[in-house]
């Protein structure tokens, strides 16, 4: 009988800020600063932040696909603009 659950074998939905920073090879303070400046996606749970794993993966994919520098602040601004346009047009807010 196995004691490991199926959840243990799946990729995480969220990373801690320290985990995301380690993956991207930057200092956690850099990630916190980007989050506070609303330039990096995160979920705030009371006083703690978690980073969607998908956001980290998408950044890597964009950089690989384009072969260029991916500006996280620009990506975040484009997403905010798209959400605002959708909201104003009666679409989904997400």
Percentage of residues assigned to helices: 55-70%
Beta-strand proportion: 5-15%
The CA-CA distance between the termini, in Å, is: 42 Å
Q: Which spans of ≥5 residues are poorly predicted at pLDDT below 50?
A: none
Sheet with the most strands, sense and barrel status: 3 strands, antiparallel
The geometry reads as globular
List how many beta strands DSSP finds.
3
CATH topology: Multidrug-efflux Transporter Regulator, Chain: A, Domain 2
Helix run count: 5
Structural class: mainly alpha
Q: What is the CATH class designation?
A: Mainly Alpha
List keywords for this structure.
HTH_17, Excisionase family DNA binding protein, three-stranded antiparallel sheet, SinI_DNA-bd, mainly alpha, DNA binding, Multidrug-efflux Transporter Regulator, Chain: A, Domain 2, 5 helices, 94 residues
């Amino acid at each position: 009988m196995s004691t490991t659950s199926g959840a243990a074998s799946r990729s995480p939905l969220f990373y801690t800020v320290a985990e995301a920073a380690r993956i991207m090879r930057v200092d956690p303070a850099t990630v916190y600063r980007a989050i506070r400046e609303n330039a990096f996606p995160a979920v705030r749970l009371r006083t703690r932040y978690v980073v969607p794993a998908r956001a980290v993966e998408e950044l890597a994919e964009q950089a690989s696909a384009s072969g260029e520098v991916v500006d996280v602040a620009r990506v975040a601004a484009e997403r905010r603009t798209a959400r605002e346009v959708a909201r104003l047009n009666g679409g989904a807010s997400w």
